[in-house]
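User: Assemble these into one structure.

Assistant: Restating your components, then the assembled model:
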Amino acid sequence: MSLAEDLYPSRGDCEPGIYPRIDPVVYASVDTPPPIARELVQRYERDGFLILEKLFSADEVAAFQCELQQLRDDPMLRRRDESITEHDGGALRSIFRVHALSALFGRLVRDPRLLRVAQYLLGDELYVHQSRLNYKPGFRGREFYWHSDFETWHVEDGMPRMRALSISIALTDNGEQNGPLLLIPGSHRHYVACGGATPENHYRKSLRKQEYGVPDDASLAQLAEAGIVATAVPAGSVILFDCNTLHGSNSNITPQPRSNLFFCYNAVSNRLLTPFCERRPRPEFIAARQRIEPLRELQGGLLDEW
Ligand code: 6CS
Ligand code: FE
C-alpha cells in the first residue's frame, strides 16, 4: 500500500459519497497561449469534457478503420493479455496498449492535434498511462457502467493527483443508439468515494464488467441532476475528458459498431506510486510504470508513411 498521503481515499473502510476535488482542472499558466480557442478551454474546465467534431479527415478515418479491422482479425493478437472479450460470449471488447501494438496508432498518440491540447491542459510533459481500443461491436457490445477513471487509477494504480486526461477518438459514427459515451457535466469537480474492498486481480473482471469502484446510486443521482450528455459524433471526432469526469456507455444492440480509441495521457510529474489499496500493482499493459518516456510530437503528416 502506498506510503504517500492519500488525498482521495476510496473503497475499503471509506464512507462512500461526494467529496471535494483538490486539484485544478486546467494546469496551463494564464500567459501560455492555448492551441485551441480560449472558449473551448473554458468549456472543458466547466464541464470536464470537450468535443472536437471531425478533427480527422476522411482519409485518416479510412486508415483508422482499416487498422481497426486488421487488429480485430489478427489471431495472434486475440491470444494476448491485452485482448479483452465480453463477459458473456466471446466478442472482442477491448485491446489495451494499442498504441504499442499498432504502428499507426503509435503515431496518432503523438499527433500534435491531440498532444498539444493535452500538454496545454495538463501543463506538463506527458506519457501514455493507458491506451485501449473499445470495439463495442454491433448486437453484442456490452455497457461500461458509470465510473471515474481517476478513482480506479488512484486506488488500483497509485496515480497520486488528478493530472491526467483521456482522448476518445470516434473510429466509427457514434450515434444516439449504438452506445455513445455518456458524460455528466461538472462531475469532475467532485470526488466520489466508492464502497467495497478491491478484490485480488480485480482487473480480470473490471475490464469486462466493473462492480467495484462504482459510485453509489445517491451520489450518481445527485451529480446527474446537472444532466447527462450523450456524445453523438461522426467518425473522426474526438472527445477529451478529465480523468475524474463520471462517464459510462450503454450496450449496443444496433447493427452499427461504436468503436472508439482511447489515449489516456498522464503528466510525467504525476507518475504512478504504489497502489492506494492493499493489492499488487496492475500489469504494465493496463497502467504504465516502466514505459513512461515523455511523448515527442509526431513530425510530418500522420499518414505520410501509409
Ligand atoms: O480500469 C481501467 O483503467 C479501465 N476501466 C474503465 C471502465 N475505464 C478506464 C479504463 O479503461
Ligand atoms: Fe473509463
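The pocket of 6CS (ligand 1) is lined by residues 130, 132, 144, 147, 149, 152, 206, 210, 286 (CB under 6 Å).
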